[in-house]
Amino acid sequence: MNIFRVHFTWKEKEYMLKAYSLDMTHPYFVSIKDLLLHEPSSFLINPADDEIRKNFGEVRQLMLPFQSVSLIEEFTAEPDMKKSEFKIPKGEVVVTDRFPKRS
After folding, report:
1. Bridge partners of 41?
2. Residue 85: what are its φ and ψ, rounded to 5°?
3. pLDDT by residue (tens digit) across 34-81?
4. 3: alpha, beta or left, given left = phi > 0 and alpha = psi -120 to 50?
5. DSSP string computed for 21-82
6. What is the rounded CA–CA span in Å between residue 34 and residue 20?
7. Separation CA 20–CA 78 (nearest Å)
8. Which of 5, 15, 45, 77, by CA, is between 20 and 30 Å from 55?
């Protein structure tokens, strides 16, 4: 399932929301459904996540004007997963033919 990350401005503040469903068929709005909100942690409180949860936690569908949206990203997996899972193991050589050898 694809995950969309939408960057937008609301009340003169920059926000970033993640959602499973995005609809851009309306002529003036971007419709965001099925928001993906981080669960609050008992150990660490992120003020940005807390503010997003307070403002948009009860929302079923969010209609944003196109002018307020600055960036829409689409991912096939959770974009904020730990990056260490994708690192190349140390000690191994990675060979690629992406760049041709010069003679």
Report:
1. none
2. -70, -20
3. 888 876 655 666 677 778 888 888 888 899 999 999 999 998 877 776
4. beta
5. EEE--SSSEEEEEEEE-PPPPSS---HHHHHHHHHHTT-SEEEEEGGGEEEEEEESS-TTS-
6. 5
7. 10
8. 77
The amino acid that residue 87 corresponds to is K
Using CB atoms within 10 Å of the CB of residue 24, give its burial: 0 to 12 exposed, 13 to 18 middle, 19+ buried.
Answer: exposed
Q: What is the dihedral of CA 54, 59, 63, 66, to 10 degrees?
A: 30
Element housing 1 (H / E): none
Q: pTM of the entire structure?
A: 0.66
Q: Model confidence over 2-26: pLDDT tens digits?
A: 899 999 998 898 988 889 999 989 9
